[in-house]
Amino acid sequence: MLRIGFEVNDNTGCCPVIFFQKDQSSRPQALKDFQYEQFAYVRIFGTVRVFKETKAIVGTHIKRIHKFSEVTNHLLQTFVSHQVRTQGALTSQELNNEDPAKGKRTSNPVTLGVKQSSSVDDSMQTVVQIMREMVKRSDVRMLHIKDVYAVVSHVQEWELFKETIDRLLREGVIVQQSEQNSDIILLSE
């Protein structure tokens, strides 16, 4: 198989993008309607692969960006994803600019069957149930603590959640990936 390669710069660094073709006379399907122009903005779909310690994107689709609002939208989506991953999802109180010190929860959403938990025992069942559902839906065994908390944050305070995680760890129901990365947890089953 032959390949056509590009070097893409997303302002965080350069990354090679590879499109494979069947033979020398054909052009990859993803590049059939694409006209190359240096310094153009493009949207690339593909899979990140590592070969000999070098990361590259194996492209499956490429299209030129004509509306620069797409770039802005991508940057905003990246920022929001990072914030949710590192800070957790906003609660209804935060969204409604309510005072979280009052301790009132205004939302009553139902996400993955989450119910209000007031004790560690109830919370343990809820967290394990949510983790099982998240693993089943994403097909990934390792979960970030803040991703799990983002699902239960509307019905459970951080202190109760953290106490629940600590007890699940002590009882061996869940395990940490490593001491260095203690925020990554998985079910021990």
Automatic annotation (TrEMBL):
Asked whether the keyword Nucleotidyltransferase is assigned, the reply is no
Q: Where in the cell is it found?
A: Nucleus
Locations of Polar residues compositional bias? 106-118
User: What's in the GO CC field?
Assistant: nucleus
- InterPro entries per the UniProt record, alphabetical: NA-bd_OB-fold, RFA2-like
What GO molecular functions are on record for this protein? DNA binding
* Keywords from the UniProt entry: DNA-binding, Nucleus
Task: Give the domain of life.
Answer: Eukaryota
According to the record, the residues making up region (Disordered) are 92-118
- PANTHER family from the entry? REPLICATION PROTEIN A-RELATED, REPLICATION PROTEIN A2
Q: What is this protein called?
A: Replication protein A C-terminal domain-containing protein
**Annotated organism of origin:** Halteria grandinella
